[in-house]
Write a structure and sequence with these properties.
The protein is α/β, with parallel strands linked by helices. It has one domain: Rossmann fold (3-Layer(aba) Sandwich), CATH 3.40.50. The protein is built from eight helices and ten strands. It is globular, with a radius of gyration of 17 Å. The two termini are 34 Å apart.
Length: 253
């Protein structure tokens, strides 16, 4: 496991217990956006308790933001995360939703580890119809490699969705002139570690287009900026950022 990956694992293990409080507004906004857009994400996300097989991978699942929105429309939702504590929160959410482990289950796993540092039960990584990663791509050292891994895990014609932030859109609520360097200086040394978990501060449309094309998921590509900002709390400070949703399909050929 790389130092960057390990920094992310340690950070999210540390914040798992208060993540849903600090990021509650952002989480609720993403759930609402995914619910509104689910049929445009995939025609398979139409009916609750679908009769046919609809497999969803919620990657870097955290406490289950994506799954809370979309799991009711799938036959099986798998959550994967680096952080054992986040996976525990995810499985707690599955239990609260009264989903059995066959319907919604989280595991600690990194698809980019080679060899993998964790083993998964047989069939967990069977091909997926839909893969979604939310507010996580900016925490990845090599986004292109991750999207290529997603493409390998998708069925032909399967859909990959990325929710993340527009570059340069994060501002301090109430003090929009406060730069990232100012924010760093205002934090305690141990709090500044969060910046060591970020590989890139967002992605524009051109960058996402290139990532999807490089992963063979160019068909039906879309990049849509959300109309309402995402708001969140970090170390007692309030911030907002502009989010986007990108979508593409794996070639069916």
């Amino acid at each position: 496991m790389s130092d960057f990956t390990e920094a992310n694992r340690k950070h999210f293990d540390k914040v798992a217990s208060n993540h849903q409080t600090d990021f509650g507004d952002l989480i609720n906004s993403i759930i609402a956006e995914l619910n509104t857009r689910r049929e445009s994400i995939s025609a398979k996300l139409v009916d609750t308790d679908p009769v046919g097989e609809v497999r969803l991978l919620d990657y870097a699942c955290g406490a289950g933001t994506v799954s809370k929105a979309l799991a009711p429309y799938t036959s099986c939702t798998i959550g994967l995360d680096l952080s054992a504590n986040m996976v525990a929160e995810y499985n707690k959410a599955a239990a609260e939703a009264a989903f059995g482990p066959d319907r919604m289950k989280g595991y600690q796993h990194d698809v980019l580890s080679a060899p993998s540092t964790t083993s998964l039960p047989s069939g967990v990584l069977a091909p997926f119809d839909i893969i979604v990663t939310s507010m996580a791509l900016h925490h990845v050292a090599d986004p292109g490699r991750l999207l290529r891994a997603f493409s390998e895990l998708l069925k032909p014609g399967g859909v990959c969705v990325v929710v993340d932030m527009v570059p340069g859109s994060a501002v301090h609520e109430g003090n929009e002139e406060r730069s990232e360097s100012d924010i760093r200086e205002a934090l305690q040394p141990e709090q500044r570690e969060v910046f060591n978990t970020i590989g890139k501060h967002g992605f524009n449309e051109e960058e996402m287009r290139a990532l999807y094309a490089g992963a063979g998921m160019w068909t039906g590509f879309e990049y849509v900026v959300f109309g309402e900002p995402f708001r969140f709390t970090m170390f007692g400070e309030r911030f907002r950022t502009t989010g986007f949703i990108a979508r593409g399909e794996k070639s069916a050929v």
